[in-house]
């Protein structure tokens, strides 16, 4: 492999990048690596405007060439055999043939297009519906193209004239300078009109403007009529036409971009097209100027309501199952749940999040634990996302009547998804990581198996699945902790507990998912807490003895002796009745009373009693309690959030190092504002009706951070220079992905002098000759010293790049409370 070649993993999808130093734009020296970096930067802005729109590509495999000698260009519609299996696609019937188009729905597909030289992306004004059929157009586009003798300023004048009419009919447009010659105007539609109807409206508008301004505007495409005038091309609204996508590069002599603009900019006498570097700066600073176009889009066609069947089979008044009334919005999540369902016949329901719903299969004997044994899998109706957390009893007489509990849950990495045919995915759950294939056999399922007459599939455990598969007959994770743990709640490490021992589950905290404000659809149903920057810990009291354990089961009791005071601050009647288990965060507060993770680092990892005692006085810790699992031997995990918070307040007295801050008394915006003013890490949003799910990562808890942070596994280091000449210059870090450790980049800033001095000694004992990373560029591996991937740290960063790298990572400190296997991409 050439030195400029590398393998990367983007959102769980592997991609080989080649010839990164190839010059794609000779006049500016812009390379393929530059093109990839551009699309990685603008991906969050670009993807909403191309999602689910069949993409036609213009490819310059060897670059655009020069004005004198242009490069060869290919206009490509159909996908070829070299297309990665994970690229989403759609088949479109043309007059005499069918083409298979890619759907540019994610950053990995965008990077693949850049890799193969598809500099320009062209899409129609309509999308593919979830049933695989074209929908009605959701935007109107006018293409203003200058003829000989006129330019961009005349196009801007026509744009203002067109806007005045479009505003009058409720279609206020947004402008995009095309990066080639003219301007595109986009207006959001409600999807009520056909392409022919929209095209007719655009044509009438063009004719009206031409009649009013005959010396400036022409609506006829004949070249003989275009000199000195601007063509108002209304034909872009034909169902068969495509327009270059917003934020797409252009195959001109310089890397210009179809760039969204403001109307104020269009009034400037210096208006000009923008290149890729300027557009990257604008996106970083201003975000997506075209965002209102997508905000107006609603995906609520009946043909796209994938929950219609589910809803028709259930009555929300008679079943505890979630029965949402609205059409589910599209999502990009990759969560799964496997539920043990004691219905008329015992079976296991396997559900994978896909496009806003949970695609589901009933597996009578449960997921296979042997690659030599296939299990019958019968597809069932799509389920709502809310089913990820569902446990309960479906009443007799209702569809699926019986007891349902969660057998496993987590996230998955997708390798292949062919609707109705085949799915290959690695599931990362509480029972380990396992790679499965779900394959349609073409047969019919036996009568009486989760829906008679449905297509029959098989579920197969792939040979190279990571970790040992668990049998469906293994004990389920407990949902009634007190009943199953009794006074064993303090016995042994969660990691060391034997298989099926519920003490391990009892000492596993519930985990949150990362999210943003858009995930809080109905704020009044959520409670908001400040996010404390420290070490997550469960505090368990039994027979007067207090134990502290980290989220991965490490005993922290001796490391933080000042927290022994908690035992005396628990209500006497409660602690005498039985075990108590509380959830909280261990923090060190600075002079202003704010958590300081840097100060906490001084307390982490200490084992010598003398050192611990000395620092307990100099750098005292506190525990911020926010939940209760067991109180006086009674299980509290089945209570809702508000009830548990009320219980916590009655169980614990705040004093000295023990704090139990209440939920924030205000709305979401106020909580975020207060968190920023206090320089906190962010906030935690928790559904008021949510129960506590030990050891599970749940969307009922969402962390909203002001600064992005990521736990990383250290796999090597590179020597320093200058004042770091005799030590570590940077750490090489990664994040577990699939069956290996995906390289995430170098971290060279953020280290304190004390920490930097001891870094090499800490890593020396772990040195190895074997590189632990997948996808590390040869240039970064050249002088690296590899270490066994056993240490976890935390970094702050700005964003993930399209190639799966951390952008601008800054070291925050070691995370001895997190095991490498527990690290997931935030």
TrEMBL record:
- Tell me which EC number(s) this protein carries: 6.5.1.1
What does the UniProt keyword field contain?
ATP-binding, DNA damage, DNA recombination, DNA repair, DNA-binding, DNA-directed DNA polymerase, Exonuclease, Hydrolase, Ligase, Manganese, Metal-binding, Multifunctional enzyme, Nuclease, Nucleotide-binding, Nucleotidyltransferase, Transferase
**GO molecular function annotation:** ATP binding; DNA binding; DNA ligase (ATP) activity; DNA-directed DNA polymerase activity; exonuclease activity; metal ion binding
Q: Which CDD domains match?
A: Adenylation_DNA_ligase_LigD_LigC, MtLigD_Pol_like, OBF_DNA_ligase_LigD
Pfam families linked = DNA_ligase_A_C (PF04679), DNA_ligase_A_M (PF01068), LigD_N (PF13298), LigD_Prim-Pol (PF21686)
| Organism this protein belongs to | Microcella alkalica
Q: Carries keyword ATP-binding?
A: yes
Question: Could you give a single Gene Ontology term from the biological process aspect?
Answer: DNA repair
Kindly give the PROSITE patterns that the UniProt entry links to this protein.
DNA_LIGASE_A3
Q: Which cofactor does it need?
A: Mn(2+)
- Which stretches make up the ATP-dependent DNA ligase family profile domain? 614-754
Q: Which domain of life is it from?
A: Bacteria
Q: What is this protein called?
A: DNA ligase (ATP)
User: Which principal EC class is assigned to this enzyme?
Assistant: ligase
Q: Which InterPro entries match?
A: DNA_ligase_ATP-dep_C (IPR012309), DNA_ligase_ATP-dep_cent (IPR012310), LigD_ligase_dom (IPR014146), LigD_PE_domain (IPR014144), LigD_pol_dom (IPR014145), MtLigD_Pol-like (IPR033649), NA-bd_OB-fold (IPR012340), NHEJ_LigD (IPR052171)
Q: Which family does it belong to?
A: In the C-terminal section; belongs to the ATP-dependent DNA ligase family. In the N-terminal section; belongs to the LigD polymerase family.
Catalysis performed (reactions): ATP + (deoxyribonucleotide)n-3'-hydroxyl + 5'-phospho-(deoxyribonucleotide)m = (deoxyribonucleotide)n+m + AMP + diphosphate
> Which SUPFAM superfamilies would you find in this protein's record?
DNA ligase/mRNA capping enzyme, catalytic domain (SSF56091), Nucleic acid-binding proteins (SSF50249)
């Amino acid at each position: 492999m050439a030195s400029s070649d590398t393998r990367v993993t983007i959102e769980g999808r592997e991609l080989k990048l080649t010839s990164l130093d190839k010059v794609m734009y000779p006049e500016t020296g812009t390379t393929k690596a530059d093109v990839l970096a551009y699309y990685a930067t603008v991906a969050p802005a670009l993807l909403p405007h191309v999602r689910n729109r069949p993409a036609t590509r213009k490819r310059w495999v060897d670059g655009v060439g020069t004005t004198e000698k242009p490069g060869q260009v290919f206009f490509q519609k159909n996908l070829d055999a070299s297309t990665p299996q994970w690229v989403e696609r759609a088949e479109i019937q043309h007059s005499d043939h069918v083409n298979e188009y890619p759907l540019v729905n994610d950053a990995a597909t965008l990077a693949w297009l850049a890799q193969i030289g598809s500099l320009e992306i062209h899409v129609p004004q309509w999308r593919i519906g979830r049933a695989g059929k074209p929908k009605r157009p959701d935007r109107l586009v006018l293409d203003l193209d200058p003829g000989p003798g006129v330019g961009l300023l005349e196009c801007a004048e026509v744009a203002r004239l067109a806007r005045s009419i479009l505003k009058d009919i409720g279609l206020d447009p947004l402008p995009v300078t095309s990066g080639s010659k003219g301007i595109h105007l986009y207006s959001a539609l409600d999807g009520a009109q056909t392409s022919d109807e929209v095209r007719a409206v655009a044509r009438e508008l063009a004719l009206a403007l031409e009649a009013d301004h005959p010396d400036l505007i022409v609506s006829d495409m004949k070249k003989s009529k275009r000199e000195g005038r601007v063509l108002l091309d209304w034909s872009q609204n034909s169902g068969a036409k495509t327009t270059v996508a917003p934020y797409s590069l252009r195959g001109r002599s310089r890397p210009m971009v179809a760039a969204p603009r403001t109307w104020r900019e269009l009034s400037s006498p210096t208006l000009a097209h923008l290149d890729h570097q300027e557009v990257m700066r604008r996106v970083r600073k201003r975000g997506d100027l075209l965002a209102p176009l997508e905000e107006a889009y609603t995906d609520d066609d009946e043909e796209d309501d994938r929950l219609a069947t589910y809803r028709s089979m259930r009555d929300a008044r008679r079943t505890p199952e979630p029965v949402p009334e609205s059409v589910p919005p599209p999502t990009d999540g990759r969560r799964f749940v496997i539920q043990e369902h004691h219905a008329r016949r015992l079976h296991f329901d396997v559900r994978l999040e896909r496009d806003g719903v949970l695609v589901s299969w009933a597996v009578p004997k449960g997921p296979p634990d042997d690659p030599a044994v296939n299990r019958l899998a019968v597809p069932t109706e799509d389920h709502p996302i809310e089913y990820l957390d569902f446990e309960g009893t479906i009443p007799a007489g209702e569809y699926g009547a019986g007891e349902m509990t969660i057998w496993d849950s987590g996230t998955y990495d997708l390798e292949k998804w062919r609707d109705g045919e085949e799915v290959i995915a690695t599931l990362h759950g509480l029972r380990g990581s396992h790679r499965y294939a779900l394959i349609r056999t073409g047969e019919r399922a036996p009568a009486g198996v989760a829906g008679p007459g449905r297509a029959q599939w098989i579920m197969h455990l792939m040979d190279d699945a990571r970790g040992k598969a668990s049998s469906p007959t293994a004990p389920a994770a407990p949902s009634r902790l007190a009943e199953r743990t009794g006074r064993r709640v303090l016995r042994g490490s969660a990691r060391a507990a034997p298989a099926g021992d519920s003490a391990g589950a009892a000492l596993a905290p519930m985990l949150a998912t990362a999210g943003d404000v858009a995930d809080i659809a109905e704020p009044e149903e959520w409670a908001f807490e400040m996010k404390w920057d420290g070490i997550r810990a469960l505090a368990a009291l039994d027979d007067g003895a207090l134990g502290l354990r980290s989220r991965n089961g490490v005993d922290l009791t001796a490391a933080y002796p000042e927290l022994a005071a908690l035992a005396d601050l628990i209500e006497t009647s409660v602690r005498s009745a039985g075990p108590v288990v509380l959830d909280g965060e261990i923090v060190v507060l600075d002079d202003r009373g704010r958590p300081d993770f840097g100060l906490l680092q001084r307390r982490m990892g200490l084992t010598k009693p003398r050192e611990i005692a000395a620092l307990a006085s100099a750098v005292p810790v506190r525990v911020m309690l926010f939940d209760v699992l067991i109180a006086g031997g009674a299980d509290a995990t089945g209570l809702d959030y508000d009830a548990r918070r009320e219980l916590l307040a009655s169980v614990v007295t705040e004093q000295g190092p023990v704090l139990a801050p209440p939920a924030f008394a205000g709305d979401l915006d106020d909580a975020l504002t207060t968190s920023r003013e206090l320089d906190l890490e962010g906030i935690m949003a928790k559904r008021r009706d949510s129960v506590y799910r030990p050891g599970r990562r749940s969307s009922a808890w969402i962390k909203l951070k002001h600064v992005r942070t990521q736990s990383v596994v250290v796999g090597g280091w590179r020597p320093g220079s200058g004042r770091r000449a005799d030590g570590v210059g940077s750490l090489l870090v990664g994040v577990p992905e699939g069956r290996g450790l995906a390289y995430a980049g170098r971290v060279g800033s953020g280290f304190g002098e004390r920490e930097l001095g001891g870094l090499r000694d800490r890593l020396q004992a772990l040195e190895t000759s074997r590189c632990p990373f997948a996808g590390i560029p040869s240039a970064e591996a050249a002088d690296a010293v590899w270490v066994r991937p056993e240490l976890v740290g935390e970094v702050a960063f700005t964003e993930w790049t399209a190639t799966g790298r951390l952008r601008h990572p800054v070291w925050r400190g070691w995370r001895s409370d997190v095991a490498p296997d527990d690290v997931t991409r935030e």
